[in-house]
Amino acid sequence: MNSVSSVSRVPVLAEEESIFEAEERRGFEIDFRALWLILKRNKWIIGGIVAAALVLGLVTTMLMTPQYTALTSIQIDQQAAQVLDTQDQVQPPSSYSDADRYLQTQVDVLKSRGMAIRVAQALNLFNDPKFFDEMDVAPPKDLSAGSQRQRNAVIHIISNNLSVDLPRDSRVVTVSFTSANPALAARIANAYASEFIKNDLQRKFNSTSYARNFLSQQLGEAKARLEQSEQNLNDYARQAGLIMTNQAGADGTTTTGSSSVTTASLAQLNQAANQATADRIAAEQNWRTVENTPLLSIPDVLGNRTVQNLLDQRATAQAALSQERAKHLDAYPTVQQLKAQLAEINDQINAIASEIKQSIRQQYETAKDRESALEAQVNAFKNATLTEQDRSVRYNILARDADTNRTLYEGLLQRYKEVSAAAGITASNISVVDQAITPAGPSSPNLLINLALALVAGIAIAGGVVFVREQLDDAIRAPEDVERKLGLPTLGIIPATEAEDMREELLAPRSPLTEAYNSLRTSLLYSTAEGMPQALFVTSSQASEGKSTTSYALATSLARLGQKVVLVDIDLRRPSQHRGFKVNNDRGLSDLLTSHGDIATVLQTTDIANLSFIAAGPVPPSPTELLGNQRMADILVELKRDFDIVIFDGPPVLGLADAPLIASMVGNAVFVVEASRGHRGATKAALRRLRTGHAHVLGAVLTKFDPKNAASDYAYYGYNYYHYGHQPEKS
Which stretch of 173-187, 236-250, 360-374 has the lowest confidence by average pLDDT? Predict the structure, then answer.
C-alpha cells in the first residue's frame, strides 16, 4: 500500500485571519483589471443608463426657457480721491494689508438684502405687475400689489438671479443678472452699479453728518466747561490775592497761571544776588592779591597810563641826573634841581598808586555791601513765596483743568471746521468700468454643458447601480472572482462541456475535461506542506453544481497515479454516485453506520484499477444522527488505514446539517462552485457553515466554466488552452 502523508488541520481562526488580512491588503490597492471586468460585465446596463441620462438632458434642455445674462463691471479702489487736503478720520480707509477683506466686504454688500431693496425701489419693481412674467416665475397666489408678501417675493427673485464675481488679484467686480427678458437683465445690472455707488456716497454723507452733529454737541459742552474752569480760576486768584503772569509754552501756546509776581521777583533777585556774590568774590580776591603787594608791583598800577608816563619822566630825570653828577658835585644847582624834580615825580607815582590800591579796596567793600543787601531781599521774598505756594496749590489745580479744557476745545473746534468743510465734497472710491448692455443671445440653456452634466450624472448613476449590483451579486463568473469574493484559492477550472455523459469524456486522456481535472489533481498534490491530504471531503453550496463529477474525476485521476483510492458516497439523502458506476445502492455506508459490519461487505470494485467505491446505501430516516455517531469516526479511521486516499462525495451545505458535520470529521474540504450561477449569498453562507464545523477548506473548484461567455481574462486564452490537446499532431 502506497502511503500518503496526511496534513495536520490548520486552525480555522488562523485561516480566517489570513483571509481578512488579504482582503485588507486588497482594499488599499486598485485592481484595474477587476474594474475592467466589472465594466465589461455590466456594459449594457451602463450604456443604457448613460443613454437615458443623455436623452433626458436633451429633452430638458429643449423644454427650458432661454435665460439672458447682463454684465456690468465695477472698480472698487482702496481709497477715494482727496478733494480737500485733510485726513478723513470719520471713515478711516482700511490698510493695504487688509485689502482682500475690504473687497470681500463690498461684495457682501452687493449681495445684501438692502441692495436688492434699493434696486427694486429704484426700478419700481414692487409695483410692476409684469416683473414676474419677465422673470418667467409664477407669482404667489393671492398676491396684492405693494404688499409685504410681494416685496419679499421680488427681493427673493432678485437675490437668486444675481451673481457677483470678484477675480483673484483684481479690484474689478463683475455684477451679472439673469432674466428671461434681456432688457430687464441689463436694467437691473446697471441699477445695481448705480445704486451701489449711491449707497456708498449716502453712507459716507450720513457718517459725516453724524460726526458733525456729534462734534457740535461736544464742542458746546467743551466750551461751557472751559468758561467755567477759567471763571473758577479767576475767582480763586482774586480771593487768594494771587497775581499770575502768562508765559508762552514750548509749543507756542499760552499757559495760564504758570508763575506769580512774587515768584518772578524772587527769581530775578536770586539771580542778582548770585551775580553780586560772584562780583564780591572777584573783588575780594583782587584786594587780597594787592593788599600786601608793593605799589609798583600791582598790575592795575602798572597798567595805569598816568603812572606809565610818570615812570617815563622819572627815567628821563634819572638819566639827566646821572649825567650832571658825572660833571658836577651834589651841591651844584643843576644837580639839586634834578633831584628835586625826581623826588616830585616819585611822590606823584606813590600818590597815584595809593589811590589805585584804595579804589580796589573800595570796590571790594562796595561788592560786599551789595551782596548783603541782595541776600536780605532774597530771604524776604523766599518767605513770601513759600507763603504764596501754600495758597497756589488749589490755583494750580484749577489752572491745569482750565488748560485741559482749552486744549480739548481747540482740538474739537479744528476738527469741526475740517468736517464741516468736507461735508459737501464727498468723493466715491467706486466707479463703473463697463455698463451692462442688452444681451444679444441667451446664456442658458447651454446644450453642450447640459449634455456634459447629463453624461456625468449618467456615469455616476450607472456607477452606483453597478456598485450595488456587484455588492449584492456573489455569482462566481471567472476564476479571479473566487479569491476576490470568497477569499479562497482556485484549485481548478473545469470547462463546460456539451457531452451527455461526462464520465465517458473523462475516459479520454486528452479531452479538455480530463486535462482540467488533472490540473485540479496537481493543485491538490501541492495544497498543503505535507502534500495530498489522505481524507478529502467534496461539497458545494447547492445541488447540481458538479461535486459528484468532481469527486469521481479526482478519484479516477488519483487512481491512475497508482494511489489506492476509495470513493465514498456520503450523501445519504440524495445519493447519485452509484448510478455513475452502474451499481446497485441496496447496500452501502448507511448499512455500516447502523451496524458493526465489516467495510469489506459494502466495498465495491470498479473497472478502474486502484479505485474502490462505497455507495450511500438505503436512505435512512435520520441521516444526521447516523453521521454524528462514533461509528462514522471509526469507519473514517479504518478507511485511512486501508487506503491511501479517501474521497467523500458529500451533500450540499445549505439547508442541511450533514455537510458541516462531515467536514468537522474529515477536516479537509474541496468547495465546488458552479460558474455564473446566481447563489444570492448562498456560497458565502455555505463557507461560513463549513468553517463553523472547523473544516479546512483547501480551495474552490470552478465548474461548468465557459471562457467565451465569461467577462474574464480567461476568455482570451481559456478556449484554446482547454482544446490544446485536440489539435492535430504535426508529422
Answer: 236-250
CATH superfamily, domain 477-726, is P-loop containing nucleotide triphosphate hydrolases (3.40.50.300)
* pLDDT surpasses 70 at 364: yes
* For the chain, percent of residues with pLDDT exceeding 70: 81
Q: DSSP 3-state assignment of 554? A: helix
Q: How far apart are CA 514 and CA 724, in angstroms?
A: 12
d(CA 64, CA 454): 15
Average pLDDT score over residue span 22-32: 57
- How far apart CA 320 and CA 342 sit, in angstroms, is 10
What pLDDT does residue 716 have?
42
3-state secondary structure at position 563: coil
Q: What is the pLDDT of residues 447-456, one digit of tens each?
A: 888 889 999 9
The domain spans of the chain are 26-64+445-470, 254-422, 477-726
Residue pair 540/494 in contact by the 8 Å Cβ criterion: no
Q: In one letter, which amino acid is 611?
A: L
Task: Give the pLDDT of residue 729.
Answer: 42
> Can you point out the beta strands (E) in 449-608?
490-495, 535-540, 565-569, 603-605
297 vs 436, higher pLDDT? 436
pLDDT averaged over the chain? 79
Torsional sign, CA 574, 580, 585, 587: negative
d(CA 227, CA 273) in angstroms, rounded, equals: 41
Q: 666: alpha, beta or left, given left = phi > 0 and alpha = psi -120 to 50?
A: alpha
Q: Tell me the angle at which helices 182-240 and 99-110 cross, rounded to the nearest 10 degrees.
A: 120
Quote the CA–CA distance of 569 and 615 in Å, as a whole number: 5
pLDDT in tens, 635-656: 999 999 999 999 999 899 876 7
Dihedral, CA atoms, 378, 380, 383, 387, nearest 10 degrees? Answer: -110
| pLDDT over 90 percentage in the chain | 13
How far is it between the farthest Cα atoms of the chain? 208
- What does the block give as the cell for 242? 494771587
| Per-residue burial over 308-344, b = 16 or more CB atoms within 10 Å of its CB, e = otherwise | eebbebbeebeebbeebeeeeeeeeeebeebeebbee
The answer to whether 646 touches 607, Cβ cutoff 8 Å, is no
426-436 pLDDT tens trace = 567 888 888 88
C-alpha cell read off for 39: 465594466
Helix (H, G, I), strand (E, B) or coil at 623: helix
Angle CA 196–202–207, to nearest 5 = 130
Helix axis angle for 113-122 and 148-161, nearest 10°, is 110
Please tell me the predicted confidence (pLDDT) of residue 450.
Answer: 87
The interaxial angle of helices 630-642 and 658-666, nearest 10 deg, is 50
**Cα gap 667→637, rounded to integer Å:** 13
